[in-house]
Amino acid sequence: MTLIKSISGIRGTIGGKPGEGLNPLDIVKFTAAYFSWVKENTRDTGKLKIVVGRDARISGQMVNSIVTGTLLGMGADVINIGLASTPTTELAVIEEKAAGGIILTASHNPKQWNALKLLNSQGEFLNDAEGKRVLAIAENENFSFAAVDDLGKKTKKDYTEYHIKHVLGLKLVDVEAIRRAEFTVGIDAVNSVGGIIVPQLLKALGVKEVVEINCESNGHFAHNPEPISENLVETTIAVRNKNMDVCFVVDPDVDRLAIINEDGTLFNEEYTLVAVADYILSNKKGNSVSNLSSSQALRDITVTHGGKYTPSAVGEVNVVAMMKATGAVIGGEGNGGVIYPESHYGRDSMVGIGLFLSHLAHSGLKCSELRSEYPDYYISKNKIELTPGIDVNDILLKIKKKYSEGQLNEVDGIRIDFDHEWVQLRKSNTEPIIRIYSESTTQERAENLAEKIIVDIRKIAGK
Question: Is 107 an annotated catalytic residue?
Answer without folding.
Answer: yes
